[in-house]
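Task: fold both queries, return tokens.
Query 1:
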Amino acid sequence: MPVITPSYLYTFFALIAVSSILLVSFMEYANAIRFSFETRKLKELMDHVAAEAIELVTMALTANASTETIIQAPPAMGEKQYWLTLKNDSARAWLEGGFGNLPTENTALRVYLACKAEATGYYISGYGAIRLTCSASADAPRIILSGLSQKGE
């Protein structure tokens, strides 16, 4: 009988090790699915904001006037805070987005605007709705992104 007891204990410890490995791998898989969902939702919001910005630029150039729109945005994506920022160079403008509470450089999520514009401003989730303001100017229209409770840059 003493020979059988250690083999049962070894089997029990092997089952604990295998079940722990399976549990950890399933938790990691669930986290990957959650991150994918949050990233997809942020990308959809960025596409919507970029489309609204292009529409504002078109209206500002057509009417030679200032335009503004408010976009309702969720306070968080899942449990993560997110940010959006408008940037431009001499050839094009784009909207960047990411997770966290501070805009960072070199993000993977970027949506290019189909128009040349001077784009500035940022939005951090949790600060009300997104405000987009556009005004026509001699060189290129100016788009400002801010939160409803933030002042534009």
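Query 1 returned. Query 2:
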Amino acid sequence: MNLTDYMDTWSGYTESVNEAASKRDGKLEKLDGYRGERADREREEITREFNEAVEVAKTEAHAKFNATLKAMKEKADKIDETMVAPTNDMLNALKALEMRTSITAREANSAAKLMEGCDVALDALQDLCTARGGVRVSTRGKSARAKAYDHLHSFNEAAGMLLQWRGGSRFDLMLKRSQERSAHVPSEERTPIGAALVADIRTDSVADFAKEIVGDDASLNDVLRLD
């Protein structure tokens, strides 16, 4: 099953990273209080071993994620697609929103209800909302195939964020980012925000895990179309 395979890859990667981090921290702890070139060389070696272990886990997980995502796409491709053209009311609503400098969640939800069943209009609405405040539009009104592709995108994006994760909780990583910002660390060198966003996702149940990946707005039945 694709969802189980994806979750197992996620779990396996986090376990490998946590194990490597635990070994690193244990070895570094033994060097507490020691100074000098020899101690510094040992610390560098310990860090190198950790980095190598993470890269091995990352390479393995990347290959597994790709295989599962490919299988998910094959499922999405097989879903019957029904194209619905936008009505005049939908187009008028989009034109009105296009004139706004910002769009609230309430306005987005109201427009989304008007555009239910029309993937083209809902995609255009999402583009507008992204450009004018970043509000996320509900996918419930889309066709089954369009929702499947949206969920596939979420799984693909989540895998990429996880593979940037090198240990730590969301709180720890967000705190680290804040400290890096205060220290004027270049943005491209800071702890990845994506790694922080997925750091606390748990793998206790497939249903709960899938919800965390695609969002509470999605129904489990729609997600299962990728399974």
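Both queries returned. Flag for query 2: The mean pLDDT is 91.
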